[in-house]
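User: I want to check something. If I give you two sequences, will you return the structure for each one separately, not as a complex?

Assistant: Yes, each is folded on its own. Here is the first sequence with its structure:
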Amino acid sequence: MTTPPKKKTTAKKTAAESKAKPAASTKPAAKAKPAAKAKPATKAKPAASAKPAAKTKPSAASEKIWLKSYPKGTPAEIGELRHTSVGALIKSSSQKYASRPAFTCMGKTITYGELDTYASQIGAWLQTCGLQKGDRVAIMLPNVLQFPIVAAAILQAGLVVVNVNPLYTPRELQHQLKDSGAKAIFIIENFATTLQQVIDKTDVKHVCVATMGDMLGLKGHLVNFVVRKVKKMVPDWSLPGHTSFKSALAKGSGLVFKPVDCTPEDAAFLQYTGGTTGVSKGATLTNRNILSNAAQNDIWLSALREKGNLPDRLVYICCLPLYHIFALTVNAIMGMEEGAQNILIPNPRDIPGFVKELGKYEYHIFPGLNTLFNALLANEDFQKLDFSALRLTIGGGMAVQRPVAERWQVLTGCIISEGYGLSETSPVATANRFDGDRFTGTIGLPLPSTDIDIRDDDGVSVALGEVGEICIRGPQVMAGYWNRPEETALVMTSDNYFRSGDMGYMDESGYIRIVDRKKDMVLVSGFNVYPNEIEEVAVSHPGILEAAAIGVPDEHSTEAVKLFVVKSDPSLTEADVKAWCAKNLTNYKRPKHIEFRDELPKTNVGKILRRELRET
């Protein structure tokens, strides 16, 4: 790889782009136009001069140069989708692979046939709630067996899944439920107290409460006792009129579920992200978006199949949360389409417990992120595991560090294939070859049916090897931000590219390297943290006059939040600030470092200069 060129500033919007219409309407059944294909650039005629005209380097999008680096026989396009909706995909796989194991959690396995039965029961219960096609239903669950059951039921009932991080604070949960207009929610009892505090301020009318032991049979009673009484992980809560998950199953079993037909353009998921301003907003992902990304990744996986390296029945490790777009698409959707088994890990932060689970199975595909790989490598028991069945490790969510990748390969014999994407791209836009034999240190090649253009500050394509903003076009790009057409217009160009805000360059083989990210975004353990939100929470404290948040390097989470504070109350302490943030922000968003200042650097018009704070 060449040395990264000098970095350019974040690209500005052109006049044409600032007037671009949003890619979707605000309605749940919004239709997203299929991505237009990039046209090859016309060749300029040489100037009439005695001297030959200087040759300009081809731009990243003028020629799909990445295609020459594809595995032999890999198509450039995904072709027609096999299903019209994600719900239809799940139904088809449940029938085709009925006897195969689908999901395993804490020693309990359900087959695809059982998944279908349970999903129909939950779907029938949902249909008694008076919900209409396109209504939003929130899922606030960790990686337990109820998650795929509930997701399948919601999608097959023609409803839209709103994924919610179970660790959200009441403030964060209230915003997401209000913004999405969710009318129902499935929640684990451990966090029911959070919902209790805000439900009256939302549109939620139907609540289904699950427990860790619901699907575990007799063992479930013991699990629930330990979770509630021994570990005391379930604070007291009260949600009058709620339905327990087991009761919903029982009620649904006596009813007939009527699946609702959906089109590829119907919304399937609202995946919340910080977007451009830091205000959490829902990326509207249609059935076409999700199905296309699953198809793109499946084509990438086919190269590994061609090498004869994959068994017919795949086993995935699902340690990343299913409410995160990475695991949702790569583990759940891809896995179900292939009839694979997913081993669900409810709490991967418990490294000893996680390693113990890994020792029970032979697994072939392991999606993860750098901090998780690093933590596992440091565990002595992990070093003793048998990795002979492992065929593919996928790294995403954050940059994979070369030392970690090299140690992983030495121990497991498997390289880490790094990919790149965002919630807005369902998520994968680029990936290294799954049949590769080395760690490249890049984010790989554009997937089939994906165009990547690198553009400068004026929205003009730059030459190969030059740094610009990574812009993405393809069928996996979202329909738009939910009910926020102005925000959608800010990130979509007039020629249907999504502006990622990430700076990078493409080399002559089509591989892409990120050299900088959104200048203000902080990446903590694979999660986007936006300074605006942190600052808004901070200045709501009566003792804080001004605040500015930036990211600083952190050996455990890649970056951590540092908050600069100007006091209005001289008695304010670091502990006071951290306690306030802990009350209003989920763990990974909380500032790790606090620095008090007499004043903050500002522009002439009074805008705080985070850049100067980063440089100090």
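And separately, the second sequence with its own structure:
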Amino acid sequence: MNAKKHTPLSLHGLRLLFPPLATLGILFLTEWIARGSLTGETFTQYIFPHAEAYLLAWAMLFLSWLAVDWLTRFAPLATLLAAVLGCAPAAVNFYTLQLRGEPFLPWDLMQVSEAAGVAAAAGIHIQTSMVVSIVIIVLLVVVSFFLYRGRQKLNWKPRVAGFLASAAATCGLLFGVFLQPAVTQAIGIVPDAWMQDRYYRYYGVITSFLTNLTNLEISKPEGYSEEAVNEILDDTEAAQKYSSAPLYPGSYGATTSADETVKKPTIIYVMDESYWDVSELEQYGFQFDTDVSANLHALQQTSAYGRVYSPSFGGGTCDVEFEALTGYSVSYLPSGSKPYQQHVTKPMFALPSYLKTEGYQTAAVHCFWARYWSRDTAYPNLGLDDFISLEKMHGVQKVRRHYWTTGLVTDDSMADQIIGQYETMKAKSDAPVFLHAVTMQNHTNYNKDNYPDDQRVKVTEAPAGLKASTVGALEDFATGIRDADAMLGRLTDYFSQVDEPVILVFWGDHYNPIDSNYDIYTRSGYASGSSADPRLHQTTLLMWSNYSDRAVDLGTIAAYDISPVMMELFVLRQPAYFQFLDRQLRAAYRANTRGTILEKDGTASIDGTVVAGTGAVYEPEEDISDGAGTGDTDAAASTDTAAADKEAHDTPAGETHTALWVALAAVVVVACAVLLIVKRKGATK
């Protein structure tokens, strides 16, 4: 009667193989969900060349499975939790890429409720990869239930020992590898400071997310101290080497005597979502059925105009906004971090806070939820006293409901909001106004069904080879540009008639892919298929006033130079930091943004590789024109596999790969051996 059942050797083998194989399968599901597709190209271009990153991710899932199983002795729960650990972040990553062009980053955890609201507004739907993954995960859970049913029970001592060993190994992997940049770089995981979407494509969701945890804090630069800064400020001899002549000789400030200049004009900032002058495409084989930029072109004859070098592409609006309001470059923040969420956590220097010391009243208007990008907490810290967000807007018109099911507020309604807020502020006080506005109408994604046929701008000519969906997406985008131009016309008409001096600064935050690919740019020759192409970072800029009609070509300036240049043009009293930026613009370069330096002569260099000419067009390394539409983020990904880019991300010598494979194989062997030993000891009791 005391005879014990002996578990067949084959069942032992299956139980030993299931955890590593199941978690490996979960890893593949994770990447499928995150990318929207998992093709042979995904493996050859991304996974196999960077196998070390995916092996680390698999080890994390495997060790997590073991820890849960030792603790609960319930394999289905371990399988389910491992699947959630991998697939849930992957799903979030997929949707964040769709909504803002950036992957799921650790600091996004601060925006969970806001992100859920955005997802609902955008009308996003579950993808095929997610449905199939759910089915596979359910099957794995069921298989684990039957596979481990009836296995020998263990008392608490071996269970605790197994759990502690697995948990220790998991922590060792997290703190000893993922959170140690020196270690990850040694095994071939190269930081990508400028493009997190590329980083995630190369190294996968799990490894990319965990290694980004090291960017939550800013390290103080070597030699940085208050004394060091004061020493620089006190170096008057060096300061005398810089010219104090006007940066733009033909501007209002350069041609108006000091006693006649306007001292404290009202200042209106309008950052228009995804705006750039799409009529430029008419030089590259496109034609539209209407002049989409009529007001812009007319105003350029009597205003300062040029381009803004944006730190962002396809998303990251708050990065551009932060630069424009503060003069600080996001290049010096941890890669991929969001300034409003992580760094604007207490009152700090910014144009609004400075203008308040000059007697201004300040406010912001944005037709989206106040908490998105944490604007509700960041704006007061920047000196913006009032904030009119979507929650406070009534009677606004909305469009583009095909993709954004609740619609997006029109730029025409935003003109109403800007004018209304200005009038409200002037009714309360005679003090000059600083009003900062951010629009939303032309937010990605683009689809011709967002507008009725009788309202949508039509493309009448286009380069050969473009898909109908791409042309339709361009029509959607061009319609938004036409409406933004109409808003610009309304605002300048209104403020040209008010009885006080007004400056209006209007610019776009960033370019986007159109129809989830780069065909609009590549097939026309407008730009390359790389999101690093300087041409795709130079949005349209206009600085207009109702008391000067001087046309000034600003060239390209960095987003962080918008405020200093505006104050230089109109000879407004500048804070010391803006004076420094003005000198930098004269003596050093026009922009230094996330690895790209734009020299004074227009020469651009990316990570040391020089490209002649402002907005120079790169030759694309590979054609992505056949990429899938919305939902295929690999196809939508930029063609960032040029030779220099590959070289920068290639893994180290083969010995490193071999050593890593051996080390991870050893983890599996040791874990399985421990499992067998503990089971046998438990069976003898």
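Because they were folded independently, the notes below concern the second chain alone. Residues 654-683 form the longest helix (30 residues). The two ends are 15 Å apart (CA to CA).
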